[in-house]
Fold this protein.
Amino acid sequence: MTYLKSAIAVALSSFLIACGSDQSATNEAVEAPSVPVAAVDTDRIKNAAAEPEMWLTYGGSYDETRHSQLGQINGDTVQNLGVDWVFEMDKPRGAEATPVVVDGVMYVTGSWSIVYAVDARTGEELWTYDPKVSGEDAAKGCCDVVNRGVAVHNGKVFVGVFDGRLEALDAATGDVLWSNVTVDQSKPYTITGAPRVFKDKVIVGNSGAELGVRGYVTAYNVETGDLEWRFYTVPNPNKEPDGAMSDAIFAELANDSWGDTGAWTTDGGGGTVWDSIVYDTVNDQVLIGVGNGSPWNASVRDPEGDFGGDYDNLFLSSILALDADTGAYRWHYQGTPRDQWDFTATAQMMLVDLPLGEDGAPRRVVMQAPKNGFFYVVDAADGELISATPFAQQNWTTGELDENGRPILVQEAIDLNGYAVMPGPTGAHNWHPMSYNPDTGFVYIPTNVALPYVYASNEASRNAKSIWNTGYDAGMAWAYEYPKGTIAYTQTLDGGSLVAWDPVAAEPAWIVPFPQAFNGGTLSTDGGLVFQGNKRGEFVAYDASTGERVWSQRLVGDAAAAPMTYELDGEQYVSVLSGWGNVSMMIYGAALEKPVTQEPGRIVTFKLGGDAELPSPLEYLVDETPKTALVGDPESWQLGMQRFAENCQFCHGAYAISSGVIPDLRWSDVSASEEIWASVVRDGILNDNGMVGFSDIINDDEIEAIRKYVIRQAWLAVENGNAQAPELAAAAGE
Ligand code: CA
């Protein structure tokens, strides 16, 4: 019923706009309503609570609490929950998107920024749009060719494409209506986050601070694609105005928080807005979550500065509030001044009313649980800090703030002389969305147990030239050797939990520990349930009050993405994406119980009584046998390890142990041949697959040293009993 009502209302309202004040013709419009596709606008999203059978925007509503008022699936019925349909995407790799459902149609993205429109009732494909991201552009990403979703507005579907385009598609056909390049494509910018729409604007950020860029957000007109306003998150390196909305506050405040020299003046300084963007309907402002510094190492990035407070590097690692219409600065809160630990503040933000006003009156607050391990509650109107409490293990601060709301750092985390900082760059909580249940009052956070990291600041790292540009020694973070029992050791570093956080009491209500990190985003429902996928490939429902595990289903691939829910013809559905990929999976291949295969991304949709079958996982059929005799010596292995850690491990896995998503170099015929290896690594003959040539960054000797290191890793696996000894072993050993 809501569908028809809203369709007529929208048809009517657009007719009135089109016809101005000519009232005489309105009856005709009501008599013959065309059924518009994706008829969603700002008012409809504002009233999302009135139609919980939809999921109109990335976070479920403008407040992005990811709580649904649907309750048909609840503690009493969940045992009957089963798979109803499965949609197979065109390509494998990480699946991170939250689908949007409007009037029976699901709009969602898979890897490589491919957009799918699917019948939400059956999973039947309506259209697919492939923006054809090149392999070369794919190589610019820090963290796999992922995408977290679309925005839908007034017959259009908006997607941020990995190579920096923002595109408006016809929601009925998937045809491109307009396409804007939003970044300088000669630089390592990418887009993985979902755009958001408010009023007549669509806003998008970007990524790339690991490789060296300057962050910003841009708002475009939804109809024409014309640029409306832009706000940079860090100053222009020459501290001159950009002609952007950030100019005024840079002159007043931010320019003075940076020195005049250092890597930030050439590499952009970072501060990318790669995930959280929230439209605050009450204060008519946009909140953006700002990322880490580029390079990470503050003494390389801004060497004139120190941690005394005069060189905070605004607006790195901050929540920023901007006027929605003009993009003008409103307020900011910087959780990590002068970031040097990759502590982005890009994690999801949500807006709720909590009884934190005078005498327990409702107070509208922003909540965020970013990488640095603190749960923040901030007044949405003016940015006043209400509370900041560690929600996970952390050792970079004393756990307390000073009277100005600044974290009190421990000296070791400033000096970084071999100190294992917790959390490390994976963060205590990353992008995986959290949810908030207004009945329990809890926020459900998918946390990572603080994987420690040694940020090694030495002379070599200052001058290192690698695809990742952090200013730290990437090799120091890991054991230089592949020690006996590496897999077991790596697994001991891994871990996560589902934390039900009480934001009023500022303490956890319950915690469900989990053996692995980087588990999926959460969905909260009026059925008193919390849904979450995990790294083991299970999709689980927990009791929202107690954390008791009440139902689970094994998926094919993991479910890092957040689930969502909708209703059609009186039946509640729950959908979640599955796939193998994203950076944690690829770099921590060694932490998996066994390698995985390249499954396509999938949308898996459940309902009560659903009885569809999931496909069986593909078998991992790789011959884990070295393909050549051991080559090299300790010196070349050491050099190879160093260059591998700097350039290769982010996709091919720490210790050269692949998760299986990308070929394991240790068992590859490519690494067996010096010539083929050089043609791939130096000349880039697999460019189209995303494996670009590295001749600009590493020389021929280093390229060969990496090969020797990889082969040594294969032979160490044999020695440790993790691989087969080949026939040639005997010959080579003589
Ligand atoms: Ca980062």
